[in-house]
Amino acid sequence: MRKLIPILTVLMVVSGCSDFIEVEPQSQFTASNFFKTEEDMNLALNGAYDGLQSIGQYGQYFVYFMEVSSDNSIQESSTNSGGVFAAFDIYNVQPSNDVVNTSWNNCYDGINRVNTILDRVDEISMDDQVRNVMKGEAKFLRVLTYFNLVRIWGDVPLITSETTDPILAFKIGRSPITEVYDLIENDLLASIQSLGVSTDPSRASINAAKALLAKVYLTEQKYTLASAFLTDVIGGGNYQLLSSFQEVFSVENESNAEILFEVQFTESGSANAGNIEGSRFSNLFAPIGALQLVDGVGSTSGDNLPSQDLYDAYSAADARLDGTIGTLADGRIYTKKYLDVPLTPYNAENNFIVIRYADVLLMQAEVLNEIGYSAAGLAFDYLNEVRARAGLAPRSNTDVSDQAAFRDAVLLERRLELAFENHRWFDLVRTGNAIATLDGHSATNGPVTLSQNQLLYPIPQAQIDIMNNEELMYQNPGYQ
Description:
Helix 6 (about 100-120) packs antiparallel against helix 7, helix 11 crosses helix 15 and helix 15 packs antiparallel against helix 16. The strands form five sheets. A two-stranded antiparallel sheet has the order 1-5. Strands 2-3 form a two-stranded antiparallel sheet. The chain has helices spanning about 10-15, 30-35, 40-50, 60-70, 85-90, 100-120, 130-155, 165-170, 175-195, 205-220, 225-235, 280-285, 310-315, 320-325, 355-370, 380-390, 405-420, 425-430, 435-440, 460-465; strands spanning about 75, 155, 175, 260-265, 305, 325, 335, 350-355, 440-445, 445. It has 20 helices and ten strands. It is globular. The protein starts with 7 loop residues before the first helix and ends in a 13-residue tail after the last helix. The chain has a domain at about 5-20 and about 30-195 and about 430-465: Serine Threonine Protein Phosphatase 5, Tetratricopeptide repeat (Alpha Horseshoe), CATH 1.25.40.390. By secondary structure, it is mostly helical.
């Protein structure tokens, strides 16, 4: 399956928003004199996909926002990189945290790449169907990024045109959450109209767009709308659960029939820790000193280690346990889903799965229950399809006897099935279970305290300082 390779020229052209408002000339090329042909636009689109690989997005930092902050994982060391990663584990993330600032910048860099395409593609001579597909892919990428932004920070700047003038960026403040979700819904609906079925999960497809829109509607509690799109995906017959849970994540079985959308990485000959062609997960997620897990290639960081609580949540009969968590001879447990021997340090082959079919089935089980609990309804069928692959007995109305019990059953199943795939934090927040579940749970240095304001992360202090306008760029409550 084709891997996405960074296009250096395109990165220089479309990364003008890497610090959101700080635009520096990095090449003799400009957007106005470079984007002339369909091939140029394809290079730009590849560059937009490449933005998802960035360190601040799926390349590394999202895992701290979305897993380490949850009860799924911990940081083995509280002092690695000055403690900026462990801060997510102990709920002490400050506006000055470099992870927060880098993720913000990388997200808006990715949005600017997409906006450059959307602002210029109509000027290029090409087949209209090709153009529409390109627009659909670009909007899907913008939606995915804004969906992450709005769930991490709440109100965020809504930028829908290419940013070329740094002065104008000083005038772009935070938009209300409702406006961000309006853009997300409209962009996805437009994408669905133009995208087709694809067997390449590294590219946006109509089914990936429908599944993502369903997740958006689920988050907004628009359950009937979510169910309709999930029904389309399930009924299309384009995806299936693999017979083996472990094979879903095997580097020898990448881009398999369970995956709707993934961020692809490929090991390269570039041996540097900042490499974003190869994935960093093997070195990052192995316990400190467990060099045997990476065959002695580079160091290991002890990031995103499974919590004991997650390990204990699996039953002995659950086949997913062995595919999710491993145990070293010294008793330490580690994440197995992203295990691979890197070619060079921080340079392995693992892709990052964003949407897969098991997630679709569990979303459908959840939304059907929210529409109305049924003691013998389809919601049980979808839940039990996922459990059957794990080797577990089906749930029924005898042990899940009402709507509230079914909610708990789905939330648990999502945790066990989708651990370390960047769903847990958002699942707990959107279901209203974050405080009850996470306040007092054991993290890096023991029990932690989580407050309501910490369900959103702080706006990077660098952005507030640059804007110097509290009406446009204000801090989230509870942070200084």
